[in-house]
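Exercise 7 asks you to align residues with tokens for two separate proteins.
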Amino acid sequence: MDTFDATPLVTDTDRFTVQRMLWMHRWAPRLFSFRISRANGYRFTPGQFARLGLVKENGATIWRAYSMVSAVWDEYLEFYSIHVPDGEFTSRLAQLEVGAPVLIERQAHGFFTTDRFADGRDLWMLGTGTGLAPYLSVLHDPRTWERFDRLVLVHCVRETPELGYREQIAGLGSHPLWSEHGHKLRYVPVITREAGRGVLHDRIPALLANGELERAADLALDPERSRLMICGSPKMVEDTHRQLMSMGYRLSRMKAPGQLAVENAW
């Protein structure tokens, strides 16, 4: 396959900087992670997203939003992406070589952060596919481990190879910055199109409705102490949000704190 050479037709502006591709790893035929260089002074809160741009052959720029996977202290920025073969953005992105230019807006965006919750003792992170990305950044934040008594990470995919970052997640509890809190994390993988032991096999809304998710995490949901983040496909977010609303949970807003935070990811 020919590589895509996006020779930049622009330079740094007040809105964005031109960074470089550093690394790319493919998890499955349609899933990959990549890192780009990080401009001096670029700041973000775990859970936020960046707007990345690629320059087309005609000089036009395509922009897409990507949640940060990396920790706030990493010298690079890491992202998790699905590869849409005919997609205007990802078909180009997936072919970039190390050193290729990638534009990034100077300011991070979004409010899908644990700051949305004024209180709570248990943090549930429910994600499908690349909706895992913001949770990895959240779990690289020592404040997350110090603030919550229990951390439950649920990652739902169709097939086993799509469980990206599984080994990295397994090692999170032993990180030297929060190793004393490592026992707090529960990782619950869900695979919907394969049979197998040690994982769940239904959609997240159904697992919430029948109590199977709570049993797998060995932790009861409770509006008084549980705070839930939902990130994934729009249909998953909508159905999970609806299910949790029926269980007595509500969105957390600035003037009306609640138990839920939601964000769509493609």
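Second protein for Exercise 7:
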Amino acid sequence: MARRLPRITGLFLSAIFATSPALADNHDTFYRGKTVRIVVGAPPGGGFDVYSRALARHMGRHIGGSPTLIVENMAGGGTLVAGKFN
């Protein structure tokens, strides 16, 4: 029983920490007044561009703080250019 006690204690402590609420900032205040960019690695007018613009049109309302969403097209290199963008 003495060998199992540390294991049981470890499981008990990990269960407590796994269920405790995370201390994070309120997302309503974090995104308020900010701009979120959606980078599309395809040229304008393509399928990915159309889907991204349709998503951006409505998604801002569903994020707390209602940020502005902008779609940017960065075609080139088979989306490699958009992947390297920071």
